[in-house]
Structures are given as C-alpha cells and as structure tokens.
Amino acid sequence: MTLDENTPIEEVRSFFAHDLFATEACGCRIVEAARGHAVTELDIEPRHRNAMGAVMGGAIFTLADYALAVACNIGEAPTVSVSNTIEFLSGARGDRLIATCNADKSGRSLGFYTVDVRDGLGTHVARMSATCFRRA
Q1: Is-contact 28 40, C-beta < 8 A?
Q2: Is 51 helix (H, G, I), strand (E, B) or coil?
Q3: Which of 30, 51, 119, 123 is in the most buried spot, having the most CB atoms within 10 Å?
Q4: CATH topology for the 9-134 domain
Q5: Residue 132, helix vs strand vs coil
Q6: Are 67 and 40 in contact (CB under 8 A)?
Q7: Sequence-distant (≥ 6) Cβ neighbours of residue 135 within 8 angstroms
Q8: pLDDT tens per residue across span 44-59
Q9: In this predicted model, what pLDDT tens digit does every residue of 108-121 receive, in sequence order?
Q10: Is 72 strand, coil or helix?
Q11: What's 61's DSSP letter?
C-alpha cells in the first residue's frame, strides 16, 4: 500500500496498526498524518510507568518513534530510522502523552526529523532528533 497526502486518515491508521508494539502493547494512536508531519498520542496507564512511578523512557520513545514512522512514510519511498537521539526534558504529568513530528529536511535518500513530546498538561517532556533512510 502506498500512502500519500490524499490517503484518508482511517487508511493510514489501518496501515500503521501493523506496528503491533506501538499500537497493541503501548496503546499509541495516530491523530494527524501528512507528508513530513504526524501527531500521535497515548493514554498514560500503569503499564507505562517504571518502578519509581514515572512514565518509562521506553514508552516515551515508542510514542515518538511511532510519530516519526508516520511522518516519514507518507508520500515518500519506504523509510526507516537509522539514528535517533532523545532528550528527556521533564517528567510527564497528567493522563496523556502527545508526540508531534515534523520534517526538518526531507531529501531523496535521507530525512531529518524532530519529534516533540508533551504531556496532556502541555509540559515539554522530551525531544527526539532522527535521521532516516529512504529505500529507492
């Protein structure tokens, strides 16, 4: 299936539902999807918390990575992440996390993206920078 700017959001969600770790194990959902842009979210549940009660970094990274996957594969050749750096800026509060991914530069074979993760109260929780490779 080829995803482009005109693909209805329901079809985008159906395609990415096959990312079982993000969708089934973690509960990530797609809110917005466009070429070079995506918004994903998850409801914070006990399964997302670490032994100290904070939201686990892996849950935050998974949500950010899911937003990246959507943003870099709409209207592009199949794209995979080759390098990610995440900075955890603040503890998450509230009951939801929202990841917003935007392309910084989307080239023919490489793409550079930034994902900002905020909690439901608007606190900036994390920032991920990613480099992606497009398969021709």
Answers
A1: yes
A2: coil
A3: 30
A4: Thiol Ester Dehydrase; Chain A (3.10.129)
A5: strand
A6: yes
A7: 77, 78, 79, 80
A8: 999 999 999 999 999 9
A9: 999 999 999 999 99
A10: helix
A11: H
